[in-house]
Amino acid sequence: MISRKLLFSVIFTIFLASLIRTFVTRPVLKVMSHPYARELEVATLAVKRASVLTKKLSDSIAETSKSGTQIKNDKSPVTVGDYAAQAIINHAIKLNFPTDNIVGEEDSESLKEETEEAQQLTGRIMQIIADVQAQTSSSSDVLGTLDLVNAVYDSIDFGNYEGGSKGRFWALDPIDGTKGFLRGDQFAVCLALVEDGKVVLGVIGCPNLAENIQSNENQSGVVGGLYSAIKGLGAYYTPLFENEEFVPLERQEKIHMSSTTDPAELKVVEGVEKGHSSHSTQSLIKTQLGFSEETVAGQTINLDSQVKYCVLAKGLADIYLRLPINDKYREKIWDHAAGNILLYESGGQVGDVLGTALDFGKGRLLDSQGVIAANKNVFSKVIAAVESVLLEEKK
């Protein structure tokens, strides 16, 4: 027969094991098994590697603008950083999710031309890819490496998918805010996962964004932020360059939009480039919302790229206005996909000038005009002001 002492020991051991499973194992399993856990890890490490690469280029902006710039048909500058970052991220996605499609901004056609300029650009791309892979070698088990020119070309061209309302694809902007990048100012590396036309995951690397943004002049804290969001799990922030490793969500800061409605306290983020949105119309909208003429300048923060979404999601601003410059202009999905889910998961709302939610299942472009984002408490008031101003302008 089993002695009482031995029986007590067995029962105590079982009880102790149960406690360990309850208070240690279960929370870890819950976090690690959340939807899109693998996708988040791959996307995060890829964006971080691309952010290291683009930050180094941005810091040497003078050299980049002289020797590493091409001009697209629409005359916006494209740097070697665009190609290198897209190659790195696309390669990581295809390595880990071979059947996933990618909607990317760049293609390798101009790099394959038999010209001295194309050869120089290709050589520079290969060099900076090799450098960043060596610098972030701890991530190579997940992200893989690119060593051959043709493999780089192929990786860039993985981004040729046309999008659509069915299936699963990634939307990538390797350097969002290229002009900010060339100025050594704000830009972002933006990656989103879209399923059946809905954004379910977004990761944004902001290499030059300060942790705290109070105004155009007042910015402080850690420079470089990583912003992530997963459908149903919320939005998160962590320093971008603190380490090379993937930081699990439970060790990141969960972020939320503000709930401010008072015009004296509201802050608006707008683009820097006037050619991207109608600043004059946006000024009228702020007046319609009740902004004071004496304080409105200090309540307006001008930032390039999707870093605007990040500032809103962190509760540092309340409204994002991007009015169309003409009736025919349509936004590209990679310019808003990651920011879209970041805003929703942080408690905000996003729509076009009519307040209708953006649809990422219509191809490579949004079939709508403009982008308006705000905290939920003030969103309807912003849309009403937008409609009123636009109607008045048409008279």
UniProtKB/TrEMBL annotation:
Residues where Mg(2+) binds:
E105, D173, I175, D176, D335
InterPro entries with a match to the protein in the record:
DPNP, Inositol_monoP_metal-BS, Inositol_monoP_superfamily, Inositol_monophosphatase-like, Inositol_monophosphatase_CS
Q: Using the UniProt record, name the top-level EC class of this enzyme in a single word.
A: hydrolase
One biological-process term from Gene Ontology? phosphatidylinositol phosphate biosynthetic process
Where on the tree of life does the source sit, at the highest rank? Eukaryota
Arranged from A to Z, the UniProt key words for this protein are: Hydrolase, Magnesium, Metal-binding
Task: Describe the reaction catalysed, as an equation.
Answer: adenosine 2',5'-bisphosphate + H2O = AMP + phosphate; 3'-phosphoadenylyl sulfate + H2O = adenosine 5'-phosphosulfate + phosphate; adenosine 3',5'-bisphosphate + H2O = AMP + phosphate
This entry's Enzyme Commission designation comes to 3.1.3.7
Report the protein name in the record: 3'(2'),5'-bisphosphate nucleotidase
